[in-house]
Specification:
Elements (H helix, E strand, L loop, with lengths): L10 H15 L6 H8 L3 H4 L6 H12 L12 H18 L4 H4 L7 H17 L3 H20 L30 H27 L9
Helix pairs in contact: 1-4, 5-7, 5-8, 5-9, 7-8, 8-9
Protein name: TetR/AcrR family transcriptional regulator C-terminal domain-containing protein
Keywords: DNA-binding, Repressor, Transcription, Transcription regulation
InterPro entries: Homeodomain-like_sf, HTH-type_TetR-like_transc_reg, HTH_TetR, Repressor_TetR_C, Tet_transcr_reg_TetR, Tet_transcr_reg_TetR-rel_C_sf
Length: 215
């Protein structure tokens, strides 16, 4: 059988090529035309699989975030939040150029909505009032997205001369980039632990509390 002149396309192949392009060149460089060139096909061929770029990005995002873990809520709310936050950060940092998509609200993305439902349900089921559960979910997301968006340690220059004499409290700042991954991981864990410890105290006050009398 003669080999087909046009490569056989599939949704997984298109998603993989799109993600590789985003990782390499950035999200703003992705277009259906550019992606078709990467795959050595005509742009029209892509539209038989995806109606537009947003539809493609939705599925790429769902695939990238598929390992985010919300199963910990079956144990208790603290374990649920910790496992969710850590796996969420891991998913975002693996593909930083895709972060504007993966960190966005769930919209109509099925998997993102499923996870949001599990987080909220896990908190409410543990005794958190619905309003508090919503605020906790939002606060945890702020912590995770902030940690994934940029590196504190990599924000410093590695030239000791910049800090010597003029910034006496930053005399070791030039060493931070060398240890950036370690610092970023430890700092995230510190922030997450402090957040969860603070919630423990709040939980004792609000969980299972009687509704306020509106009369």
């Amino acid at each position: 059988m003669a080999r087909p002149k046009t490569p056989i396309l599939s949704k997984p192949a298109i998603r993989a090529a799109a993600l590789a392009l985003i990782d390499r060149d950035g999200l703003e460089k992705l277009s259906m035309r550019k992606l078709a060139q990467e795959l050595d096909v005509r742009a029209a061929s892509l539209y038989s699989h995806y109606g537009n770029k947003d539809e493609l990005l939705t599925e790429v995002s769902e695939e990238v975030t598929s390992d985010i873990d919300v199963t910990g809520f079956a144990e208790d709310w603290r374990e649920g939040l910790a496992r969710w936050a850590r796996s969420y950060r891991d998913a975002l940092t693996r593909h930083p150029n895709l972060l504007p998509v993966t960190a966005a609200g769930p919209g109509r993305r099925e998997e993102a909505l499923r996870r949001a439902d599990a987080v909220h349900g896990g908190l409410v089921g543990a005794g958190w009032p619905p309003k508090q559960a919503t605020m906790i979910g939002a606060s945890a997301k702020y912590l995770v997205v902030g940690a994934a968006t940029q590196s504190f340690a990599r924000g410093f220059d590695d030239d000791v001369r910049i800090y010597r004499d003029r910034y006496p409290n930053l005399t070791q700042a030039h060493r931070l980039p060398e240890h950036a991954a370690e610092i970023d991981d430890a700092s995230f864990e510190l922030a997450l632990t402090a957040f969860l410890d603070g919630l423990e105290g709040l939980f004792a006050k609000v969980a299972h509390a009687e509704p306020a009398d509106d009369a």
